[in-house]
Amino acid sequence: MNVAVVTVGDELLAGRTTDTNATWLCERLADRGVGVERVTTVPDRIGDIARVVNEYRAEYDAVIVTGGLGPTHDDLTMEGVAAALGRSVEEHDAALAWLEENGYARADLASGTTELPAGARALHNEAGVAPGAVLEGVYVLPGVPEEMKAMFETIADEFSGTPTYRETVVADEPESALLDRIADVRERFDITVGSYPGESVRLELTGTNEETVEEAAAWLRERVESPDGES
Fold first, then answer.
1. Which of 82, 102, 138, 189 is most buried, judged by most C-beta within 10 A?
2. Looking at the DSSP assignment, which residues form a beta bridge with residue 116?
3. What are the pLDDT digits (tens) for 37-86?
4. Where, residue-wise, is CATH 3.30.70 in the chain?
5. What phi and psi, each to the nearest 5 degrees, are found at residue 153?
6. Backbone phi, psi, residue 60, to 5°
7. Each residue of 14-35: pLDDT tens digit?
8. What is the CATH number of domain 2-158?
């Protein structure tokens, strides 16, 4: 399963808010064996949201959109997603009923709180108010991290793929000096290797067979200089 993540918000693009949602989602999806192919941030504009969602839903199995939910003037995500799918936005009876059952009087809810794309399945917000939605492989979640995380957990089982396993090998050598051994371990084992230089070089070995990844890591550790001086 391949997924794209779209985060919405002018504050993200201006650097006023750190986009922790995308990182968290990527980690959770990777844990479930799901490949994240794109992470894109768009402004609070209906046209930009609609264009990116429409493009990605044609390319990937699912699109997760976070941010811009609610009744305020800049909460335009539902309208953008609706535009991408050729739907109108209308009050969602099930979303309204759930809020009323959980102590929110209709008169207390701001206009637009429960408006979702026509035909969408409502995702109830256990940690807040504004509901999310699912329609045609597009999942719309809140931008508030606590709300987003709680809502994602209710749909996590809808995202699955081939589990991947990871081992880390730390080498106290220049990255350029490791190229031959990186090539060798790739040739010997069915894995991929990511190289991340810093004070030491961190080599991340990943694959779909746990035993193979462990064997590859053991093979490589024997052939690099470790930070503690052992090879």
1. 82
2. 90
3. 999 999 999 999 999 999 999 999 999 999 999 888 889 999 999 999 99
4. 165-221
5. -60, -25
6. -125, 165
7. 999 999 999 999 999 998 999 9
8. 3.40.980.10
